Predict the 3D structure of the following.
Amino acid sequence: MTAPDAVRNGFWDRLQRIDRRWIYLVIWLVVMIPLLLPFSIKPKAMPPVEKLFNYIDTMPEDKALVISVDYTPDTQAELHPMAIALLRHAFATHRRVGVLATAVYGLGLGEEALRQVAAEFNEKAVSHEDSVISGEDYVFWGWSTPFLTVMLGMGEKITNVFPVDYYGVATESLPITPRIKNYNDIGIVMSIAGSSTPLSWVTYAQTQFGVRIGCGTTAVSAADYYTYLNSGQFTGMLAGMRGAAEYEQLLEDKLTAAGSSLALRYKATEAMSSQTAAHIAIIVFIIFGNIGYFVTRRRKS
Amino acid sequence: MNISTDPWVWIAAILTLAVFSFLYRENPFYRFAEHLFVGVSNGYAITFTWHRILVPYLLNPVGHGQKLWLIPIAIVGALYFTRFIPKVSWMVRFPIAIVLGYSAGASIPRSIAATVIEQLKATIITRASFADVQQGIWAVIILIGVICTITYFFFSTERKGALKPVSYVGVIFIMVGFGASFGYTVMARISLFIGRLQFLLGDWLGLIR
């Protein structure tokens, strides 16, 4: 072995044995720096996101958007921006909204999303029509269990499943209730989940009652759900933080074109520069790791 | 820099850092955060179930002499707790049997319709599949992928003859699927990390708007 060969092999050997904590440190820096010094990225919507956005944008006015908060705080970073973007879209286009949670830990997140988006609209409201009012424009049904009973029961009568809303008000007394009685009044149920709950919505609500289902999922689950998108069982899909960013961009484009930009924070879009930088770093790691593996294997053989 | 003065933000930030400390090595701060999380989660679920389910739907109506038919149902449900009494622990089978029976009856026909029939229908190529050339090509690829992948999972016969190349193509489809899943998994984990950093740098330290 020549001296340069020894140096080269030493480098690859060291790379194979590198302490994983150095890799964590690099990822930490690669993610953190673009958050502090962001570079502009305009996400381009993929067909599953575009399809979902267009459906919600153009669905009949008498149909409501229902958001099922099926996620928990551990997947908040990926999924919460989806709920926020969907609520903004619904309120900006004066859709009625119903929100429920099939996971008890999702209740706080659902409430927070509704409170935040309602406040954003109410701050700019100049008339009663512009305001977003609980019980009139939206209802937060809260949580009930088991989810199977909830999904089947909502096809008959929603007030049977949720006699009181999250705040303890009798749902029968809410002005919005006569306009969202069951799935016949719902344009689409958006299941936002880090679990298989969107499939449960398809299995119970769609198979039995024919209601449209949209899916907002973590990137981990996205590959499994494309088959349901292909079969048309999902009207559209938001996959991970990138899906949320694409939806945010479509919403911002639409509102800007209409001259009513919300000028708000879009957290998923803001994260895209970090996401891109991290992906580049991971690709470099994979390339170097593979080269190192083959170089050391060849030498050993 | 505009550091938060909200004590809850500080608690969340410190706990986040305690969990991240595991990246360096196992330590008491990480273990404290982990145990706290398990305790708080269970406490929250139990409290919520008591206040939002048992009290309004069972205790209040029964306490006012209404919906008395809920009493035998509640007794059957309470049989879950016989698990803690070895002599009568066999009685836990009653509520389990009822839940299993109901769930299986409600799930099986709908699951077959949603995950088998509808998925099979989606692989069938019709003239409409070629309304758009690109869509037609994808429909053919999906059909080939489904057939080859299912062929790979024929374990009852030896892979030779025509079965061998077909199942080999199936393996390629499976590997592509694994690659897509891995790519998405990386994206997901990075997203979660970004979410925490947005909180630490933004909500806590005020370094980002």
In short: The interface with chain A takes residues 23-24, 41, 44-45, 48-49, 52-53, 56, 103, 106-107, 110-111, 113-115, 118-119, 121-122, 142, 177, 180-181, 184-188, 190-198, 201, 207-209 of chain B (CB under 8 Å). Chain B has a mean pLDDT of 93. The two ends of chain B are 10 Å apart (CA to CA). The longest helix of chain B spans residues 163-204.
